[in-house]
Design goal:
alpha+beta, Arc Repressor Mutant, subunit A, 6 helices, single chain, four-stranded antiparallel β-sheet, globular, Alpha-Beta Plaits
């Protein structure tokens, strides 16, 4: 991947797109004070450079629950017996592709991984735990925290530098 430099306009574009990726190119161009063709080229450059990984819709769990069921969201801490690079990478490569795993973080200190997982119900979580954790001889400890309420979910991280 080639090296890319970012100026204030690029940072502002990233900031606005992270807040609302559905904004039209015309509105985006107006907010960063460039022409629509320039805006389109800059956003394409940011995508091509891998700075914009993908664009998604954030669903409202409370509104979906009556239609699909509540399901279970859990934050799961995983500690491995062996923490060599090859063991960490093997665990990550095995769990990250699983559709029930919404997020996978390698962390330090404390557990080796923190996962955010989703299951339709407790039997579904048990099957997930057996599939991903119990069957792995290198998993020493699993600690699950089940969500009772989502107070905040904000992927926005703010890329515009202050000052």
């Amino acid at each position: 991947m080639e090296s890319i430099s970012l100026d204030a306009t690029d940072l502002r574009l990233l900031d606005l797109l992270q807040r609302d990726a559905s904004i039209s190119n015309q509105d985006l161009a107006e907010q960063v004070h460039v022409s629509p063709p320039t805006c389109l080229r800059r956003v394409k450059r940011l995508r091509d450079a891998g700075l914009i990984e993908r664009e998604i819709a954030i669903l409202n769990d409370d509104r979906l629950a009556p239609l699909l069921g509540h399901g279970l969201s859990a934050i799961v801490e995983i500690t491995l017996d062996r923490q060599g690079a090859e063991h960490l990478e093997a665990f990550e490569a095995r769990v990250a592709p699983d559709p029930a795993v919404q997020q996978c973080w390698r962390v330090s200190p404390g557990p080796d991984f923190v996962l955010v997982v989703f299951a339709h119900d407790m039997p579904g979580y048990l099957a997930l735990a057996q599939r991903l954790f119990t069957s792995d001889a290198n998993v020493r400890n699993v600690k699950a925290f089940f969500s009772v309420k989502r107070s905040k979910f904000e992927p926005y991280r703010g890329v515009v530098r202050a000052g």
